[in-house]
Fold:
Amino acid sequence: MRLFRRNAIGFYAVYAAAMVSGLVVTPILLRSIGNEAFGIWAFIGGITIYLAVLDIGLGPSVVRFTAEAHGRRDPEEINRVASVALVLYAAIGVLTLLAGAVVAWCVPLLIETPPDLVWEARVSTFLVTLSLAVRFPLGLFYNLLGGRHRFDLQNLGNFVGTVLYAVLVALLIPRGGGLVVLGLLTILVTVLRLGLPLVWLRRELPQLRLQREYVTRARARDLIGVSGSNFLVHVANKVVFSTDVVVVGIVLGPTEAAFYAIASRLFQLVFGLASVVTSMLYPAFAEYEGSGEQARQRRLLLSGLRGGSAAALVLALPLLVIPSNLIHAWVGDGYSESAPVLALLALVLLVHQPLWMLTQYLIARGRQREIARLLIIGAAANLVVSVVLAFTVGTWGVALATLIVDVAVLAAAVPLSVGPAAGLRAGELARALLRPVLPALGSAVLVFGSRGASVPTRSWSSSPSASRGACWRARRSGASGSRPRSAGRSRASSAAAAAERRRCWRRPNLPSRPGRPRACARSCAPPRTHSARARGRPRRARLRGRGPQAGLRGPRRRPHRRRARRAARSRPQPQPPGRR
Structure:
């Protein structure tokens, strides 16, 4: 596999930049344009991504045919594929602009939009659509480089575009930029991301010729026929990942769509990192198919399943275990509804990553029709179940629907499609898939089990919550000053309670006002010293007659305390031995 190390480093650099960009951009957008505008922007991204399915699967087909032609050492085949694909992409770009104008007008009708954001939403939607129309013809050369395994050049454009987008958002949006500015930035970044790798196109494909005689109806029908199943796969994946935000926005409103979009952004970043292996192996699968090396192709599939599952497991566990902490550290308070969504999407990641790997393998083998039917059925089921659960349980029900459908599709795809195509038993594929999972589960049981076993052995009084509980117990056991000591309490327990009260209420570094006890050093309320005030009666006070605080008002002494002191003085004191 050519340039594997460089491609892997480039992919991880791009996704690291994307994660940093997402961590920076999302809080800026939430604070600058507000929750409603951010929900509308997420809805625009979710609905315009459907226009990307007008690609009709040409992108994966171009990568596949380019890799196969390279394996057969046939440069003329690459020229024919590129010439026909460029004409098809130009027609798709024009169709995208027309469809985008209709979608832009309908966006305020599909989601509840404030009156002052109606035209901003429409203009921003059309600008995003324009970026998609530009992406189609430029994407042809991008895919040609992918067929030659030059993902490092693609990653260079993605890295520069991601960093530039984050910097421009941080500079422009807080200074009054809105949805329109975001749409303009999307066009700029798209042109830069796809145009920068073209500098190296001539060096990688010196024999590339785009000529009119290569464009024939028969060739176009062949390319579209092969791309038809890829188109269905593309539609199914877009529906699964993009319908969720759209369903939440239509059913529950823009604010709930913002909550779901926050978790979805984290999920997309992590899924991109987990799918790095899949992105690099797809042209290798196609190249081995062109050269007829089926045994190496099978070994590569099993290795890819093990590596992809391990990567998905490492990246999904933090989202599953500490979703609230991650969201709070990212966007702050007020977004707790995103936590259960993020936890469920972490489970989706563990299922969808191997499913995507198997899908790419079948496309490279030319066996995409069977998996395409399964994915389309799953996408339709996901849409129906998402709507039902959104009405029933709320935002997190949409993520639960995605998880249920992905598990069902993966369980059906392994024995029905992948096993026969690869010549492997379902048990072999399952072992390769679960091999990284079982050690990770064992480690998790040991870690969490040891953590749970160590909790009871900790000193209760050493934790902050224990200190607050001790203060509460001391206050309830007689610290109010209005309750006499219970008859059944021993003198030792009373002394212990008094010591606890002195330890709890005394804080020398905080001066107290006359007549009021010192505040508790452990974040509990000061003791109640005025029982009449606690019962709602007016407090009676008297002037102190002597001492350094003479003349100041203070709490009236309680009669039962005077009786207790007189009883203590009249009680016989123990005498040392020899004096009796």
Observations:
- The first strand starts at residue 541 and ends at 543.
- The CA atoms of residues 157 and 169 lie 18 Å apart.
